[in-house]
Design a protein that fits this description.
Its EC number is 3.2.1.106. Cleaves the distal alpha 1,2-linked glucose residue from the Glc(3)Man(9)GlcNAc(2) oligosaccharide precursor. The chain is an alpha+beta fold. Among the domains are: 255 residues, Beta-galactosidase, Chain A, domain 5 (Distorted Sandwich); 141 residues, no CATH class. It has 18 helices and 27 strands.
């Protein structure tokens, strides 16, 4: 059953209760965790499953999405997620031949802590194994080593349910465990297929409980292998496992409800139709259509694609707490900070990336300004005193274990493009007093960020001159630019100025001037003068007079022959004067000749010697966010230029087809299409998705493309 919820109106005052609980461990199949702003040590509920007769090793117990089998693919996707109170997640496991959904509902998130998570199977399970085990762990984690968490867990049977009591010196909360089988409520305490275990271990290890779960299950002596009994050996602990062993032909709902009060489970039960009716009165889809412009589409599956893209972006929000690692000494690196942000990929990158998040928030800001503002505030809380914001922030031990050591340490020289400026400008455009108060705070913080960015990336060779360059690992591997392996050197000559870096510098200064005109008028002229200086420098040094294309400049002053995404930023940012038809015509011709495919604009010219070489990451594949910026630039600034508008119409349709057909058609299981979005797309004839998947970070800008949203 899908329960449809109403999304509330925009309100910029960030209510901490709204985002205290959520699906904030995107790397796991299903987990509900707490943004604990007092001790920063969360209570986390994690879901696991395994086949009782087929546990060959520890990883036979599944709970992470990046451990799927290559031989028998397993698919994970959010069907719906509103970011505040409601989520439905589907798992289709090709190896175990099972399919189920995990549901999460908050009953009244603004006022009380009252939520429910349920694993549901509405289809008879298929396959050869007789039993499948469903396990929840309830665990107190310790992320903050400086504060002691005094919470303890106790377990007792009560009526038809199991009650888990969470006790602190200040309050007592409860989790009730309940089961419905084949449409009827089950007395768990009289059911031989239900078991539980109370455990204690060092809470710093409690983010990964599979090893403990596996070792404890191996000790069991039940008739069903690998099943807990109903006895406990200690009065209290910091971990509880609850387990239900389902039969193959069983339709079940296995549920946990978290509450601040004790209840009589038989009389105040969440399966009760009264509560479901309250939720049924709300409407998710009407709010989605209002937010993202309901427009005529040639095929209704584009709308389904858009909703799925959106839901899986929201399902990628992560919360973490801890410090980061840095190559250079900086006090900000050792400080423990809370982060709450979207992430690029549940599979490959379940941690925050700076320039990615600017694209993510183009969507999030429209949907929930509170959610967007909270993410931005957390990012700026990690800014150092000199204005540096680390571009990649794996903070918790759990996040760090998923990052290769070579990528953990952050460098001040590698600063990302300032994409958060898109979010500032959009939030300000809402002209909502409460929102503008938050934008004012963010603008004040952004001043230091701006000065650091301009200084660290700038190349100043005299008065009235300012251009920019990316300072990366080397001239052809540059993580700061965001386009890691896009070629910058040529025939041994390094780059002197990078056109995309210079364009970001101009866009940053020009946008800060617009914000200062509202929030800090005395500084507006200063930003304006800097923007004009950069603009003159770009026109003088980056524009190749022979073919009218803005290009990288090499160390000897010659123009780089490489053509690709960096050359498109003058169009994306509306930098080119709309009356300069010769330059705009040249861009149309260059795009058609060098970058055009039937699946979107490729990242590097097909005629380039570096095309498709090395990792083939940004040297050919189609990336959706840069294509989005090009569409945005054409629609906002060049709608009167026929050549660009013709290109716009065809490019938009190509992108929609590429992303949404891949989402619809890539693989099938149980006669149901699998639904994945990809990191990037093959620029060749097939247009197949490539790289990490699911990838619902900036690929989710397809939602904005479908609905033609470019503000």
């Amino acid at each position: 059953m899908f329960i449809i919820l109403l999304v509330q109106c925009i309100n910029a005052q960030v209510n901490p209760m709204l985002y205290k609980w959520g699906t904030y461990k995107p790397q796991l199949i299903h987990a509900i965790t707490e943004r604990n702003m007092q001790t920063f040590n969360p209570l986390t509920i994690t879901f696991y499953y395994f086949m009782n007769n087929n546990i060959r090793w520890e990883k036979s117990i599944k709970y992470k999405i990046n451990e799927r089998s290559n031989d028998e693919p397993t698919y994970y996707q959010y069907l719906y997620h509103d970011g505040e109170r409601y989520a439905i997640h589907e798992t289709i496991d090709g190896e175990y031949k099972v399919r189920f959904t995990n549901e999460f509902y908050k009953v009244n998130p603004e006022k009380i802590e009252d939520w429910v998570t349920t694993v549901v199977n509405n289809d008879a399970l298929v396959g050869d194994e007789e039993y499948i085990s469903l396990v929840y762990s309830i665990a107190i984690e310790k992320l903050n080593q400086e504060k002691t968490d005094l919470r303890k867990l106790q377990v007792e049977e009560e009526g038809d349910s199991l009650k888990i009591t969470i006790t602190t010196a200040q309050q007592v909360n409860y989790i009730y465990v309940a089961l419905e089988s084949n449409g009827k409520q089950v007395n768990l305490n009289q059911n031989d297929n239900f078991g539980y275990s109370l455990q204690f271990q060092n809470p710093t290890l409690n983010y990964n409980l599979r090893t403990l779960l596996y070792s404890e299950l191996r000790k069991t002596k039940e008739d069903i292998p690998f099943k807990f009994n109903k006895t406990i050996d200690q009065e209290q602990g910091n971990i509880v496992f609850v387990q239900y062993v389902a039969k193959r032909n069983e339709l079940f709902k296995f549920q946990l409800r978290y509450m601040q009060r004790e209840i009589s489970v038989s009389s105040d039960y969440f399966f009760d139709a009264r509560i479901l009716k309250k939720l049924d009165n709300m409407n998710f889809f009407s709010q989605f259509n209002r937010t993202f412009n309901k427009i005529p589409l040639k095929n209704p599956f584009y709308l389904s694609c858009s909703i799925s893209s959106f839901a899986n972006l929201i399902g990628g929000f992560a919360t973490s707490f801890g410090n980061i690692e840095c190559e250079e000494a900086n006090p900000i690196c050792s400080q423990q900070k809370m982060m709450f942000t979207p992430t690029p990929s549940r599979f490959g990158f379940p941690r925050p990336f700076l320039w990615d998040d600017g694209f993510h928030n183009m969507i999030v800001c429209r949907w929930k300004s509170q959610l967007c503002i909270q993410s931005l505030l957390d990012w700026f809380d990690t800014m150092s005193s000199n204005g540096w914001i680390p571009r990649e922030q794996a903070r918790s031990p759990e996040q760090k274990t998923a990052v290769p050591q070579a990528f953990l340490a952050q460098k001040q020289s590698e600063t990302n493009p300032p994409t958060f400026i898109f979010n500032f400008l959009y939030l300000d455009s809402l002209k909502n007093g409460e929102i503008q108060q938050q934008v004012r705070k963010l603008y004040t913080k952004a001043i230091d960020w701006y000065h650091f960015w301009i200084k660290s990336q700038g190349v100043n060779e005299g008065d009235n001159f300012l251009l920019f360059k990316w300072w990366g690992m080397n001239d052809n591997i540059n993580f700061g630019s965001g386009m890691d392996d896009w070629p910058r050197s040529h025939n041994g000559l390094k780059s002197k100025f990078n056109i995309d870096a210079s364009m970001w510098g101009w866009f940053f200064a020009d946008s800060m001037q617009k914000l200062a005109a509202i929030y800090d008028p005395q500084k507006s002229n200063q930003f304006h003068q800097t923007a004009e200086m950069i603009k003159k420098s770009i026109n003088k040094y980056h524009l190749d007079p022979d073919d009218k294309i803005f290009k990288d400049v090499l160390i000897d002053g010659s123009f780089s022959p490489h053509l690709g995404y960096p050359n498109l930023f003058p169009i994306a940012f509306g930098f080119i004067d709309p009356t300069k038809s010769d330059i705009l015509d040249a861009y149309v011709n260059m795009i058609k000749k060098e970058l055009w495919t039937n699946h979107g604009l490729r990242s590097l010219s097909i005629n380039d010697n570096h095309f498709g070489k090395g990792d083939n990451y940004w040297t050919g594949p189609v990336w959706i966010p840069i294509n989005y910026l090009v569409l945005r630039g054409i629609q906002k600034y060049y709608s009167t230029h026929k050549g660009l508008m013709d290109l716009y119409k065809e490019l938009r349709e190509n992108l929609m087809n590429t992303v949404c057909i891949n989402w619809r058609d890539r693989g099938q299981h149980y006669s149901t299409y699998t639904r994945y979005f990809f990191e990037h797309y093959n620029q060749r004839q097939d247009g197949l998705g490539r790289g990490y998947h699911p990838f619902n970070g900036w690929t989710s800008t397809i939602t904005l493309i479908i609905h033609e949203i470019y503000d």
